[in-house]
Structures are given as C-alpha cells and as structure tokens.
Amino acid sequence: MDRVPPGHPEQCQGTGKHGQCPNRQEHGSDYCRGCGGVSTKNQEEVRSFLLARVDHRRKLEGPMDALSRLQ
Q1: Is the pTM here over 0.70, yes or no?
Q2: Total domain count for the chain?
Q3: CB-based burial of residue 69 (10 Å sphere; 0-12 exposed, 13-18 middle, 19+ buried)?
Q4: What's residue 62's pLDDT?
C-alpha cells in the first residue's frame, strides 16, 4: 500500500486511534485495502472491453441488418 501526505485527495478515509489512515485509497473506493476498500479497476476494464465489443459488432452488422431484426 502506498502512503500519501496528509490532506492528499486520494488519502484513505479510514480512521483509527492515531487519526486518519495515511494510505492511498483503492481505485473506486474511499478506503485502502487495510481499511476494507475494494478496487473496482478490473470490473471497469472488463465492462469497457465488453461495451467496445458490442459497439464493434453493431458497426459490422450495418444499418440494414438492424432494421430487418425489428420486423
């Protein structure tokens, strides 16, 4: 876990008996791994890949294939 200076925008929001946690937040969370934060980076990458694949298939189909499916 990376440490960040106090007041940094990516500082973990977890608190303990010594004050605010000095570690960097996990991607997509307000907390570091030690304070229970879970990264969403992998989920976002998979979602982006799947959306790009659907967009590519739509471009390959062409406008006539999409119209014939509606009928």
Answers
A1: no
A2: 1
A3: exposed
A4: 67
